[in-house]
Design goal:
It is rod-shaped and about 105 Å long. About 55% of the residues lie in helices and about 0% in strands. The chain has a domain of about 70 residues. By secondary structure, the chain is an all-alpha fold.
């Protein structure tokens, strides 16, 4: 190959890299893995409270069974709602940290 052709190829290669003659480090940020911070068991959901079996119970016993089921269901609902709020908070904090670390932030 002749020298002019090699020089032309080298010039094209340098211009395509975007670096030209200036040596700059190439920095790439890996994708955020915010979902990995959420406990895997949370994707399974929260079990509901079973409906009480009141067969053979008197009125007082049936009321107590239903009251206990209501309290249990309310506790399960609170647990599920807490997981939702915690998940949103985890993802928001992770995104804030990732965005703060970005080189092109303003």
């Amino acid at each position: 190959m002749n020298t002019a052709r090699i020089t032309a190829c080298a010039a094209v290669a340098l211009s395509l890299t975007g670096c030209g003659l200036i040596s700059r480090p190439v920095v790439s940020q890996p994708p955020a893995r915010c979902a990995d911070l959420i406990p895997p068991s949370w994707s399974e959901g929260v079990e509901g409270e079973p409906v009480p079996d009141t067969a053979g119970l008197d009125l007082k016993g049936a009321l107590q069974a239903w009251a206990a089921a209501y309290v249990g269901a309310d506790g399960q609902l609170a647990k599920a709602n807490g997981r939702t709020a915690d998940t949103v908070s985890i993802v928001r904090q992770c995104e804030a940290m990732v965005n703060a670390a970005r080189a092109d932030r303003q």
